[in-house]
Design brief:
Largest sheet: 9 strands, mixed, barrel
CATH architecture: Beta Barrel
Distance between the termini: 23 Å
Radius of gyration: 16 Å
Helix content: under 10%
Order of helices and strands: EEEEEEEEEE
CATH class: Mainly Beta
Shape: elongated
Strand content: over 45%
CATH superfamily: SO1590-like
Number of helices: 0
Number of domains: 1
Number of strands: 10
Structural class: mainly beta
Oligomer: single chain
């Protein structure tokens, strides 16, 4: 999918996810929403006015899928000038039996002039996984926003189409 996607500029733990999974002919459509906050980050500023910000963030949390608790880990990099610019990274969902689903993200942040409020969008691609998600493929998107500076709470809505190995 190549339409704008909203995603993560600040990554977090203590995430509260609401997730729904629907079967289709060859896989699943997964959708979830979250309020997330960064748990670990390593960021640098550059330029005489500190307008450039680059580095990484880490998010961990949990969601519920089909009545089971699923662990979420997200690693993301940012390369912003005045709060705007690209972010990239990886998301790993770990299911109770140890099955994993791995995703990559490629996004863009568009911030207000004070760099607090930002709209976020990202494309998601399924890397693969283990167990049930072995050799999975697919893609999706994030859409969301942040009302605080990088590292503050982010709201995100995710839609993901996963094709399963038959």
């Amino acid at each position: 999918m190549s339409t704008p996607r909203f995603a993560l500029a600040a990554l977090s733990a203590g995430a509260l996810f609401a997730l729904a999974a629907c079967n289709n002919d060859s896989g699943e459509e997964l959708t979830w929403s979250a309020e997330i906050t960064s748990v670990d980050q390593f960021l640098h500023q550059a330029n005489s006015d500190d307008s450039a910000l680059y580095g990484w963030n880490r998010i961990v949390g949990e969601t519920e899928i089909d009545g089971e608790t699923v662990e979420v880990e997200m690693l993301g990099t940012v390369d912003y000038v005045d709060g705007n610019g690209p972010f990239r990274g990886f998301i790993t969902l770990t299911f109770p039996g140890g099955d994993t689903l791995a995703l990559s993200q490629d996004g863009e942040a568009e911030a207000e002039p004070d760099t607090t409020r930002a709209d976020l969008s990202a494309d998601l691609d399924v890397i693969g996984g283990t167990g049930r998600y072995l050799d999975a493929t697919g893609d999706g998107q994030w859409e969301g926003f942040r009302d605080e500076a990088l590292g503050g709470e982010v709201h995100m809505d995710v839609t993901l189409d996963v094709e399963l190995l038959e």
